[in-house]
Structure formats: C-alpha cells, structure tokens
Amino acid sequence: MISIKQKNRKRISLFEYVAFSMQNCCGWTIVYMLLQIISAIFPTLIISVSAAFINAFIENYSKSGNTVQLVRSGGLFLFFVLISYLLPTCISFVGIRLNVNLGTAYDFLLANKRSRIKYALIENSETYELVERVCADSSGRMYKGIRNIFNAAEYIIRFAGITVTLLVYDAAVGLLAGGLLVLIVPICVKGGKEDYKAYEKASEQFRKARYLRTILSGRDSAAERTLFGSANWMNQKWETWHNEGRILAAVATKKNFIRIKIGSMISVLVSGGIMLIMLPDVLNGKISVGLYISIVTAVIGLVQLMTWNIASVVEELVVSRQYIKDYASFMSLEEETQFSEKREKINVSRVEFRDVSFSYPNCDKKVLNHVNFILETGKTYALVGENGSGKSTIVKLMLGLFKDYEGEILINGVELKQFSAWQLQSIYACSFQDFARYELSVRDNIAIGRGIQMDQVSDAAVSEAIDKVGLTNYISAMPKGIETKIGRIEDEGTDLSGGQWQRIAIARALVKDAAVYIMDEPTAALDPMSEKDIYNLIYEAMCGKIGVLITHRLGGAARTDEIIVLKQGKICERGTFKNLMRANGVFAHLYNMQRSWYQ
Length: 599
Ligand code: ADP
Fold this sequence. Notes:
This protein is of the alpha/beta class. The protein is built from 20 helices and 10 strands. Residues 1-9 have low confidence and may be disordered. Bound molecules: adenosine-5'-diphosphate. Adenosine-5'-diphosphate is lined by residues 123, 360, 363, 367, 385, 387-393. Residues 123, 360, 363, 367, 385, 387-393 line the site of adenosine-5'-diphosphate.
C-alpha cells in the first residue's frame, strides 16, 4: 500500500519556494530578491542619514548658520526618502510579474503531475484530500511563499539593523529590542500552526460544500434536481457545510486577532521602555539628539509594522511551510509507468487469472477471492453476476490499474506486472460502463481510444468506427461533420442523447486494433432494437480476438463461448449458455427471471 508519509522522508524547507522560483523564473526572482534586500536595509541606513540631517540643523545651521552641511545631509536624506517611497512600487511591479509567471508554471506542473498519478491512488481518500489541498487555488501559492519568505527576511533585517544600531550605543537597550523578537516569534509560530489545522478542517467543509454547489448548478443533475425537487435539501446541506467551514475559519481569525493585540501591547511597552532608557544618554550627550529622534522614529515605525504585520507574516510563513510539505508529498505520489518504456507490441493469445484475490487499498474486505480463469484468442467470454460481485474489479486488475493483488495475472504466461504501461495500453480496447463524455469534437472523442497515438488516427478510421455504431447519418448532418464539437461547452456544441453517447464510447473502443476487447455494459443506454444491432457489431469486432463482455442483459451473453458467473468475489459457475441453462443453477435462475419480465 502506498503511504503518503512514507514517501516524504526528505526534510522539506521553505527554500523549496525559492528553488522553484529560481528554476522557473530566474531573472524576476533575482530582481525581486535584490529589491527586497535593499528595502530591508534602507530603514537602518535612514537612521544615520536622518540623524546627520537633524544634527546638521541643530549643530551647524541653528548655532553657526552653516548651510553647506545642512544642504548636503538634507539632499542625501531626501534621496533616501524618495528611494524608500519608490521601492515598494518597484517591488509590487516585479511581484506582479513573478506572480503571473510562477502561477502559470506551477499550474502546468500540478496539472501534469495530477494526470500521471497512479490510478490506485486516485481512488484513495487520503490521497484525494491531499491532491485537493495542494491543487485548490494553486496559482498564487508559489508567489505567496516567496513573498512571505522575503517579507519575513525584510523584518528580520530591519529588526537586526535597528537592534545592532541600538547595541552600538547601549547594550541594554539593544538586548531589550532583541528580546521583543524572541517573545513575539514563538507566539506567532504557534498561532500559524493552529491556523493551518483550522484551515485544513475548514477546507474539508468548503470542499464538501463546493461539491454540492456543482450538483446544484450542474447540467448532469438538472433533470433529477427538478424532478425530485431536491434543490431545497441540497441548499440547506450546502448552507450547513459552508457555515461549519466559515465558523472554523472565523474562530481561527478571532484567536489570531487576540494574539496580534497581545503582541502589539508587548511591543508598545518595550518601545516605550527603549525611549525612556535612552533619554538620560541624550541629556548627558552620549547620544546625539538627531540619532535619538531617528532611532525613536525607526523603532515606532518598526513596532507599528510588527504589531500588525509580523504576526501575520510569521503565521503565513507557517502556513506556507505546511503547504510546501503537502506539495512535496503530492509530488512524490507514485505515477503510472511512463509510455516511453518498452514499446514493442505483443500478440496476446492468452490471459489467465491464477488464484487471484484482491482488496482495495485501505479496505480489509476481499473483493475477489481465489479467482481462476483463462481467456484465449478467438473466443468470447461473458462476466455476469449481481451488482458488487466483482466484475468491474476483474477488469481493473486485467488493465493493470491495481497491482497489489495476490496470485498471478498472466499475459501469454508472463506476469502482468512485467509489462510496461504502454504495452498494457496497446493490448486492450475498452468501452466502460461509466464512459467519459468528452466535450470535444466527434473526431477527438473517438480517436482518443487510441491513447497516445490518437494524432495518427485517420479520418477514414474515425468514419469507419462511426459507421459501425450506426451514427453515420446523424453525424453527417451535423454542421461540421466529425469536426463538430459535442456537449455544450462551446457555443457551436451539439448535445447527444444517452444512447448516442454510448455509441460514441463503443466507437472509441472499435477504432483501436487491440488483442483484447472489453465491453462493460455496452448497451445500458440503448433501446432493445439498437441493442441487437450493437451486440451484432460487438461480436463481429471481437471475432478472432479475446472478447470480454460484462452485462446484466443475460440474453446478450448467450452467444459467448463461456459465461463466468460471479458471486461475492468468487466464481460460482462457468460454462456455455446451453450448459449453464441445463445445469439450472444461478445463471439459469437469473436468466429465467429476466425472460419472464418480457413475457
Ligand atoms: P460489479 O462490477 O460486479 O458491480 P465491482 O467490481 O464494482 O462490482 O465491486 C466489487 C466490490 O468492490 C463492491 O463491494 C464494491 O463496493 C467494492 N469496490 C469497488 N470499487 C471500490 C473502491 N474504489 N474502493 C473500495 N471498494 C470498492
């Protein structure tokens, strides 16, 4: 079983943000870093520049009327003030560029990774939550991380600068200022961790509420919503979940506010103390008036900034750290083997399940129990059994979507796990019961059946598949033929009926020349007349191949060479239609029951 924590042994630090930023947007990152560092050093430099200006006014100008020193120090002071006003604007401008560039690169990376995650992990709730946490509002995450790191660095540099300036003049005062940081930071870190936990709980509620909103506004559920009048119930449920999330977030904000207030009171007391302690040194001339005024101004500025900002910066930093840990876990999630490996095609003549048992990840229940069967070329097989008996699970294992099974699955006598994803993909053509409805062109909807070779599918092959499923007349009458977009995502989109969509899904399987055809409930959405035609074409397509048919319509299974009957994950009967009917067991009972509905 794949555990998220196990995979995340490497120590993850905030510098992952900087590394990502440097890799994807090197130039803007360097400019941003330089501007932030200059902006952090500036307040300390301004202390001496403004002190020199004030002293020049008091010492040179008021006492002796000397303007040279005043103009020189005043000019320098003005220059520094101007730069310190311009710097935030420059940082914002560079930040916007960095945000856009990083957002694009990051979204691309996440989408790419998400599409490659191992199928078994997608069905795992722990992984699902992780993926949701990492991918929700992902665009600004990387920039936010960088911004938080440099904001924190800026405060530390500013604080250190003022503390060092104070230490130079008075060790006690410098230590007092340093103590302030030591006091505030742990409170903020603790708060940040609590905030993240609250955010995790709140986001779980918001995720559930978001899902309901999709159902409430989605087209797929519109008919049932109207028919069952379920919108009120869903609205109430949405409100409950949304409010629960909101309350969790509000409690965290309230605690955060109280912490900030306590932090600000401590800061005001400490800065007041600093001013008082320094006053005697000013009076006895140890510190110049200019320096005193400049230090006091800088301390007040820093305290104001810190009381409102440092708490949130440290807390956001903690949130960013938790997020980057999640990101690292997400990035280390196991992926499906890439198609670049082992590309030679195999002529499959036999697929065998030898004593296969299986439980889904994180579930103890055995869904398949010592299953044995052999499928051979030139024959067709039906998998039948009541809901939940394990038919779809057998297909998932056959396709290599889950590999944690007991026993052996052999393709031409070789264990399935030895085959590359590309090889497995090339062996099978499938039409799934819950087939996808791609809101793309008819052509793409069908060509996608050839997987990574979909670009090589000719128009003639697409038209042939359309012809087989009996949609030629319908699609020829569409505005752009096979290039017409289906579904309603585009303005020109044309929607299809359930049965037509099912035919498209079958055409998607038929466009591929595979060794094994798997048809899972291929006629579920079709009327009885169409059903007969579709069965004819499916049997035709499966001729000379290995054909697997999963169906509840037991009449459709009559023509297969062997029917495998499943019950609670075990094979309870197998044989030809005739033999099973003669045996008068489970299959015959189910078949006779179905037949009686039509009499
Ligand atoms: P069938 O196709 O015969 O209706 P399935 O193979 O879909 O049956 O399901 C067999 C059993 O496995 C059922 O009990 C079902 O609840 C369980 N099951 C199916 N998918 C999962 C999953 N992703 N996680 C846990 N249990 C599952």
